[in-house]
Design a protein that fits this description.
The chain is mainly alpha-helical. It has 16 helices and no strands. Helix content is 77%, strand content 0%. Helix 1 runs antiparallel to helix 10, helix 11 runs antiparallel to helix 14 and helix 11 packs antiparallel against helix 16.
Length: 404
């Protein structure tokens, strides 16, 4: 435990801060899918342009993630994360303005803020809770997934009942964002001063294990963002209503919480994570294949995909810490895995939609997801054990060099 987090009250406040930050890393994104048809109709957007609402945050993740370790070295991770929360909050506010330009500009700001949180959280957990990486990763993944699921489920009801319609459904997430800004501020005040020295740092581009972790992160993220973007439309074309499709997307994310909580228990009995990762990825393949060959069983395949997706998310996040020597390595591996991984994920919803347009059906897009899941099974074997060699950093911006 770091000196800064010492004492039960300080430690508890840090954990609560991390969890509240995690609660804000997905709802502004997952609430878009169920509302995409309304957004498209009200703003007169072409389908490909409307799809950018999901793709732009992922491109922001890919662009911002590689520079987060250097920014953390200059300003300190606590200050950087607090600034990112402010940017994200401002982005939500901008997106509430009734215009297409504001909607897209706010989406980019939200993506940039979330990108910093995506990289910083695994590093802070590795630094301040090195003996509880699995437990806290599961906790923040569960919170993140749970709030994301709620955002999907309530999006259409809020848009139908609240003044402002879908603008309010997207803008209401400014409330938990402001809570996160307030709750994280004590960590900014307690942080050690940054010395402002930024030395050259290398991401582990030459490590095969780092590439395996990156591939696993990218493929599971591709599946998640395809699901939150297109599953509601797939469900509606199977004969369910728009609101029901939104609640099925909620179910997909809600059942993921079960495996988010169960994965750390399974890992305690395993020497490494290869078997758990391979089985979870194979379950994803089963769910996509089920939607392809038996689309009438939409409820069953939703549950299978949710359970498998929850496990894969926790594993992908845990790999960022478990495959690293220390907090510095976790930050570097996280930056690499999320920059390349989210580029892969960004292509998913676009290619999925293009295949649907070209083929006039869901068979080709779902076949693509079966191929992606097969690739994930393969890379899971490599990503499930070992340690990425150190990148040769001269100093540790996250404080890993302190006695714990």
């Amino acid at each position: 435990m770091s000196k800064r987090a010492g004492g039960r009250s300080g430690q508890a406040l840090l954990v609560w801060g991390l969890l509240v930050v995690a609660a804000n890393l997905r709802p502004s994104l997952t609430g878009v899918g169920p509302l995409l048809d309304r957004v498209q109709a009200d703003l007169g957007l072409a389908p490909a342009v409307a799809g950018l609402l999901t793709t732009l945050p992922l491109l922001a993740f890919a662009a911002v993630s590689p520079v987060v370790p250097r920014m953390a070295a200059r300003w300190g991770p606590e200050r950087l994360l607090w600034g990112a929360l402010l940017v994200m909050t401002f982005g939500i506010a901008v997106r509430w303005i009734p215009s297409a330009g504001a909607l897209f500009a706010g989406t980019v700001l939200i993506g940039a803020g979330i990108a910093v949180g995506n990289v910083i959280l695994p590093s802070l957990i590795k630094r301040d809770f090195p003996d509880r990486v699995g437990l806290l990763t599961s906790a923040y993944a569960t919170v993140m997934g749970g709030v994301a699921a709620v955002a999907s489920g309530v999006a259409v009801p809020i848009a139908e009942a609240a003044p402002g319609g879908w603008y309010t459904a997207l803008g209401c997430w400014i409330v938990p964002a402001l809570v996160a800004v307030a709750l994280w501020f004590p960590q900014v005040r307690a942080a050690r001063p940054a010395d402002g020295t930024v030395r050259r740092r290398r991401l582990p581009w030459r490590s095969p294990l780092a590439w395996a972790v990156t591939a696993f992160m990218g493929l599971q993220s591709l599946g998640f963002y395809v699901a939150v973007t297109w599953l509601p439309q797939v469900f509606q074309d199977s004969g369910v209503g728009a609101a029901t499709a939104g609640w099925l997307l909620f179910l997909y994310q809600a059942v993921a919480l079960v495996t988010s909580l169960a994965v750390p228990i399974a890992l305690r009995w395993a020497r490494d994570q290869r078997a758990v990762a391979a089985v979870s990825s194979a379950a994803l393949l089963t769910g996509y294949a089920g939607l392809l060959v038996a689309p009438g069983w939409v409820l069953a395949w939703t549950v299978v995909l949710g359970l498998a997706g929850g496990a894969c998310l926790v594993l992908a996040l845990a790999f960022l810490s478990l495959r690293a020597h220390d907090a510095t390595g976790a930050g570097e591996l996280s930056a690499m895995a999320q920059s390349i991984g989210y580029l892969v994920a960004a292509a998913g919803p676009v290619v999925f939609g293009l295949l649907h347009t070209v083929s006039s059906g869901w068979e080709a897009p779902l076949a693509l997801m079966c191929v992606a899941a097969t690739g994930q099974v393969i890379v899971s074997i490599a990503a499930g054990r070992g340690t990425v060699p150190g990148a040769g950093a001269d100093r540790d911006p996250l404080g890993a060099g302190e006695p714990r």
